[in-house]
Design a protein that fits this description.
With 394 residues, the chain is an alpha+beta fold. Helices cover 53% and strands 9% of the residues. It is built from 16 helices and 10 strands. A hairpin with a 2-residue loop joins strand 6 and strand 7.
Length: 394
């Protein structure tokens, strides 16, 4: 099977790996697949044994011309996602401050206004492609606001962030690689200029600047600020987009679930958690084994790679009854879709709140919402599992 087909529907492979003894080596991932809930939780609880270096290893290595375009741009530095120990704590602290419940609560009126404006822009049409009209724009607008970016710059910045993902995870012709690399380089220069004027700002960028460069930043600190700002911009956008897309898709795919939620809106928090369990927005990350050890009965050598599958953990039959069914009334069980331990997602609360606001808005304004088509294709990526397109009627 090719990698794209694996990415579009990884669940049969997850199920086979959970049923097999020990770990299964997945050729498509070039890694040992950690598929059972207990094993995923164990790996995430042992960062000294399973390093985050290379957590987001690219599927594609850009060519020399594309790399040359990036060479002169700031931002060639480690990020919170792929570091361990004190370095990880240093990168994470300003994100934790900038995405604290207090900070998120303060931005919720902005989120509500932005969500309402997006819905109003297409409500009269009675038909919409949900992902492009709402699920992508809302998180992009919100993360741009939190970073303190000029609203006019946000669409271009988000598009360039997506180009960065394409450059590393989608095979592109050489000339298109170069174009994408130029857009990414321009984004990094934009973020560097924005950071330079954000030291005193009460924004997420300001937190990163003050946290990573308490004094006048060195060239290396500037690279760190740009790299981590770009990372949080992309992560804060894509994962929430995926969760908004999944929640609406799964609620409407089984009409009984949508009608239940309309009748009992107090189930919205359960809908959010069930959507996250059922389709983990990020399906998983890699970890590098730091010493010879045994996991689930499989001997692993130092330097080997495991893929820690949040998506598989959410479908583990040993933890969840009927794991392949989407059920609002499911007995609450903790899931691992936002990670666990020191690398748990710092923006999980913000993402959940955006989905909550979205579902409340839809129940109030568009209770007759339904799928226009049943043939919904999932994006060929494990970074943000979401429908490529989702056509809705009301």
């Amino acid at each position: 099977m090719d990698r794209a087909a694996f990415y579009r529907d990884p669940y049969p492979h997850y199920a086979a790996a959970r049923a097999a003894p020990g770990l299964t080596f997945a050729e498509e991932l070039d890694a040992w697949l950690v598929a059972r809930y207990a094993d995923v939780r164990e790996v995430l609880s042992r960062p000294d044994d399973f390093s985050s270096q290379g957590a987001l290893r690219p599927d594609v290595l850009p060519g020399p011309r594309a790399l040359a375009e990036l060479a002169g741009a700031p931002g060639n530095a480690p990020i919170v996602l792929s570091t361990d120990g004190q370095a990880h704590q240093r990168y994470r602290r300003p994100l934790t401050r900038g995405l604290s419940p207090t900070k998120v609560a303060a931005v919720l009126p902005y989120v509500e206004a932005a969500a309402g404006g997006l819905l109003a822009s297409f409500a009269r049409a009675r038909r919409v492609e949900w992902m492009s009209a709402y699920a992508r724009p809302l998180p992009a607008t919100v993360i741009g606001h939190l970073l303190g970016l000029d609203p006019a710059e946000v669409p271009r910045a988000i598009m360039a962030g997506q180009r960065a993902e394409e450059l590393l995870f989608t095979p592109l012709p050489e000339d298109e690689q170069v174009v994408a690399a130029r857009e990414v380089a321009a984004l990094r220069h934009l973020l560097a200029a924005h950071a330079a004027r954000s030291r005193t700002a009460d924004t997420l960028t300001g937190e990163l600047v003050r946290g990573l460069a308490p004094d006048e930043p060195t060239a290396g600190q500037r690279d760190e600020i740009v790299a981590n700002t770009q990372n949080v911009m992309l992560a804060g956008h894509l994962t929430t987009t995926a969760l908004i897309g999944t929640a609406v898709h799964r609620l409407l795919r089984d009409r009984r679930q949508w009608e239940l939620l309309c009748a009992r809106p107090e189930l919205i928090p359960a809908a959010i958690e069930e959507a996250a369990r059922f389709e983990a927005p990020v399906q998983g990350f890699r970890r590098r084994v730091t010493r010879p050890l045994e996991l689930a009965g499989t001997e692993l050598a130092e330097g080997e790679t495991v893929f820690v599958s949040f998506g598989s953990a959410g479908r583990d039959e040993a933890v969840y009854e009927r794991p392949d069914e989407f059920d609002l009334l499911r007995k609450p069980e903790r899931h691992l879709s936002f990670g666990h331990g020191v690398h748990g997602c710092p923006g999980a609360f913000l993402g959940r709140e955006q989905v909550r606001i979205t579902l409340e808005l839809l129940l109030r304004e568009l209770p007759g919402l339904r799928l226009a088509r049943d043939d919904v294709a999932m994006a060929a990526t494990l970074i943000h599992r979401a429908p490529e397109e989702l056509f809705l009627l009301w």
